[in-house]
Each structure stands twice: as structure tokens, then as C-alpha cells.
Specification:
CATH architecture of the largest domain: Sandwich
Protein name: Cell adhesion molecule 1-like isoform X2
Largest sheet: 5 strands, mixed
Organism: Carassius auratus (Goldfish)
Strand order of the largest sheet: 2-9-8-4-5
Membrane topology: Single-pass membrane protein
Number of strands: 27
Subcellular location: Membrane
Distance between the termini: 160 Å
GO cellular component, one term: neuron projection
Helix content: 10-25%
CATH topology of the largest domain: Immunoglobulin-like
Number of domains: 3
Radius of gyration: 54 Å
Structural class: mainly beta
Number of helices: 2
Shape: rod-shaped
Order of helices and strands: HEEEEEEEEEEEEEEEEEEEEEEEEEEHE
């Protein structure tokens, strides 16, 4: 009998436990089935914010919207607050949607959605007002930079909320700057970024771009083109001759110099010696005719501008003149037949002597050469 009583008590206890669990589960289900939802909002100053209070499976409970000071903006579809910027967009059993036009910084804060259920529920919509920065200002420490020197460029973004982020690009390459953020009295932010780098001649004419990243704006940037001064670049071009240089030929060299600013002076010198006296120097051209080995050496073109001077060298090496081998010749002997004058005839003494000399010269006549 005692055993049966214990079994009955155990059964009753289990039933009570199940009943409690069922009640708790039903209560939780009731709350979840009327879940109140609201979303945070980011809106640019001057634009319109949409506040939505949504209920899943509402059981005719009343929805209302309060401002950050917990003043009622809308109770169902009625607006007690006398601020015409708030307008009803949608009202139903499952949603209260309200628009707030011409948003200002003073509208920022936590808005409360209330559901008069059992128990009452609240959901929160935080409005964040975004204030775009003013036009970025880019400045450089100097307008013209000499090659090899360090330059500093500053970019400033003022009056934004939240603080902007500044990035730098030089041509197609991103560079890392150093930034400082300052807060103003009206809860705005000013960001200043400094960029320092060493300038090379390849940077001349390259844009340095300050890019301002902010959630209220897109593609916000400004740029400055680099102007770089550099020493001349000097090259020597051989105009003539082509190929090896030999005695008796002529040499013509042109000095090509390019710099920023353009070279104001171009000179030709011979290293460790004087330029040949008959050499002709005309501007950037050097001409030496009738070369011989005594002209061998290093000829230097020196170009200079306000940044500095540079030079290029040409080494002259004159070779022996080409010698031509004579073509082979054949020697032939031709016998000439001639009748001597008639010396038996009477003649003046001078005529006889001339005839005698002519005969002797005929005997001594050399052989002719044919090529």
C-alpha cells in the first residue's frame, strides 16, 4: 500500500513539472511570436531618415514611437508631437513606419519603439547623422623640388562626422602618410595628413592624389602635380664616320643634353689634353677632319643648368689607313721599225748632229708598261 502511494506521488510530481515547463514554453513562445524589431539608421545631414517599428504576429497590441527624450512621436497613426518633419509612411498591425525629413545633428540619438503587449516590449533605433567633409585642401612645402630632395605635402579634411580617413596615391602607387584627428567644439572632426618622400626625376609631372574616405561621400579627392628640377642627362651621338675610324677620315659628334631647366651651357673638352687646334665646335657639335693617331683620347661633353652639371665621354681611337694592293702588271717589249734619215745627203753640220743624236736615242728607248 505504501509502495502504491509513493508511485502516485511520483506521478503527480512529474505531471506538475511537465505543466510548469509547458507554461514557461508557452510564455516564451508568446513573447517571441510578438517579437518587436527596429534597425539602426545612418543618414546624411539634410536627407531623410526612415524609422520602422515592426512586429511579428501582432495580437492587436498598440505600437508607438518615442524620440530620444521619450516624447511620443506617433501613437498608432496619430502624431502628438508638433514637428511636421515627422510623417507617417505606413501603419498596420505589424508595422509603424515614420519618415524624418531634413535631418540635422540635433536629431541624432536613440528612438524607441514600444509595443503594449504583455509584458510590454521595447526596441531601439539609433540614428547616426553623417556630415560630409568640406573640399579637401592640398598644399606642398615648395612648388618646385630638386631631384634627390625630400618634399612634404599636406592634405586637410575639415568639418566632418565621423572623422574622415585620408589615403595617398603617387601615380599608381599608394603611399603611407601620417594623420592627426582634431575634434571641434561642435562635435565635428578635422583630419590632417602629411606625406613625405624623396623626389626623383621620374616624378616630374606625376600627380600626388589625396583621397578622402567618408561614409557620406564617394570619390572625394584632390591632387597636385609634382614639378621636379634635375641635372642634365647627356649622351653623345656619332654622326660620322660609321664603323671603325681610320687615319684621314673625319669625326663628327653631337652632344645631346636634356634637363630641367634646359641646360644653358654645353662645352666640349679633351680629357688631359687640348682639343686639336683645327677642330670646329659649333654649339653642341664637334667636328675634326683629317684624323691621325695623335688625336686619340677621351672627348668629353659637359652640360650644366641651375641644378648642376653632368658629362658624357667619347673615346677616340684612330686606326691605320687602309693600304690598297696594286693590281698585277705585265711587261711587253715592242720593237719599233723606223728608217733613219739619209745621212749620205748633204746637210748642214747641225742637221748631221741632230740625226746622229736621234739614232742613238732610238737605241736607248725604254720598254712601255701596260696595265
Amino acid at each position: 500500500m505504501k509502495q502504491v502511494s509513493n508511485m502516485a506521488n511520483t506521478s503527480n510530481g512529474s505531471l506538475a513539472t511537465l505543466l510548469i515547463l509547458f507554461t514557461i514554453s508557452a510564455a516564451i513562445h508568446t513573447v517571441q511570436s510578438q517579437n518587436l524589431i527596429a534597425d539602426n539608421i545612418s543618414v546624411v545631414e539634410g536627407e531623410t531618415a526612415i524609422i520602422s517599428c515592426r512586429v511579428k504576429n501582432n495580437d492587436d497590441s498598440v505600437i508607438q514611437l518615442l524620440n530620444p527624450n521619450r516624447q511620443t512621436i506617433y501613437f498608432r497613426d496619430v502624431r502628438p508631437l508638433k514637428d511636421a518633419r515627422f510623417q507617417l509612411v505606413n501603419f498596420s498591425d505589424n508595422e509603424l513606419r515614420v519618415s524624418l525629413s531634413n535631418v540635422s545633428l540635433s536629431d541624432e540619438g536613440r528612438y524607441v519603439c514600444q509595443l503594449y503587449s504583455d509584458p510590454p516590449q521595447e526596441a531601439y533605433a539609433d540614428i547616426t547623422v553623417l556630415i560630409p567633409p568640406g573640399n579637401p585642401i592640398i598644399e606642398s612645402r615648395e612648388d618646385i623640388v630638386r631631384e634627390g630632395n625630400e618634399t612634404e605635402i599636406t592634405c586637410t579634411s575639415m568639418g566632418s562626422k565621423p572623422a574622415a580617413k585620408i589615403r595617398w596615391m603617387k601615380g599608381n602607387k599608394e603611399l603611407l602618410g601620417k594623420s592627426k584627428v582634431e575634434t571641434t567644439y561642435d562635435r565635428m572632426f578635422t583630419v590632417t595628413s602629411w606625406l613625405r618622400f624623396t623626389v626623383m626625376r621620374e616624378d616630374d609631372g606625376v600627380p600626388v592624389v589625396c583621397i578622402v574616405d567618408h561614409p557620406a561621400v564617394k570619390d572625394f579627392q584632390t591632387q597636385k602635380y609634382l614639378e621636379v628640377q634635375y641635372k642634365p642627362e647627356v649622351t653623345i651621338k656619332v654622326e660620322l664616320p660609321q664603323g671603325l675610324i681610320r687615319e684621314g677620315e673625319s669625326l663628327e659628334l653631337t652632344c645631346q643634353a636634356k634637363g630641367k631647366p634646359q641646360p644653358h651651357q654645353v662645352n666640349w673638352v679633351k680629357v688631359d689634353d687640348d682639343v686639336p687646334s683645327h677642330a670646329v665646335i659649333s654649339g653642341s657639335d664637334l667636328y675634326i677632319g683629317n684624323l691621325n693617331k695623335s688625336y686619340n683620347g677621351t672627348y668629353r661633353c659637359v652640360a650644366s643648368n641651375s641644378v648642376g652639371e653632368t658629362y658624357a665621354d667619347y673615346i677616340l681611337y684612330v686606326r691605320d689607313a687602309l693600304t690598297t694592293t696594286p693590281k698585277p702588271t705585265t711587261t711587253t717589249t715592242t720593237t719599233a721599225t723606223t728608217s733613219p734619215p739619209d745621212i749620205t745627203q748633204d746637210a748642214a753640220p747641225s742637221t748631221e748632229a741632230a740625226a746622229h743624236g736621234w739614232y742613238l736615242s732610238l737605241l736607248l728607248l725604254p720598254a712601255q708598261h701596260a696595265s
